[in-house]
Amino acid sequence: MIISYDETLRDRIQTHLAAHDRRVVTDPSKRHAAVAVVLVDSEVGEDRVDPAPVDDWIAGRPMPEAGLDGRMVDVSGGAAFFLCRRASRLSSHAAQWALPGGRLDPGESVVDAALRELDEEVGISLPGSTVLGLLDDYPTRSGYVITPVVIWGGGRLDPQPAPDEVVAVYRVGLHQLLREDSPRFIDIPESPRPVVQIPLGHDLIHAPTGAVLLQLRWWGLEGRHDPVDELEQPVFAWR
Asked: Of 73, 101, 128, 192, which is most buried with the most CB atoms under 10 A?
């Protein structure tokens, strides 16, 4: 069911964020980064054709299972969030799904970093007053602690992705996070922790992005306070 993009949703998410005792990870061996979880409006059917050249972008990337081809189609409608395809030529985490974000500059707050990265990667400038709150910190295998910043876009907005970093920006309806087959958890021999998978479109979103999106559902939409920081990433994301 499509979720309406309105003030009722905004107030519900903001209330849920304010009521949660946020988990903070302090690890001096890891660098601090922030991602922007930007909530915007979308129309049903506006994404029937994938805007990215998927065959080029995928560049030999193996699909996780039969029936998936990496395309992010038929996911829009109502309240949504921005999801990015990272450029395949990046030096780290190339050709992966991601939320706008990056490493904090010296002296920068997580909110300032998320808003700056949103402007640099997606071409959207928003003030600090649009921030609804923060999700739990997520420590990554690649040496970062990620703080997700939830932002109310206030409408559709018009993303202009930076081509050196982002292939395309998608509007993924929040209702997609509530699919009956989501979330999924699998075991891997390299770790005792379960790997989280969020099915979206014709692909699977893994942690850290998948963990952030799962908590957006559990905490932001449902008011459920389950932790996600111990959910595992797939081995290809450890580097």
From this structure: 101
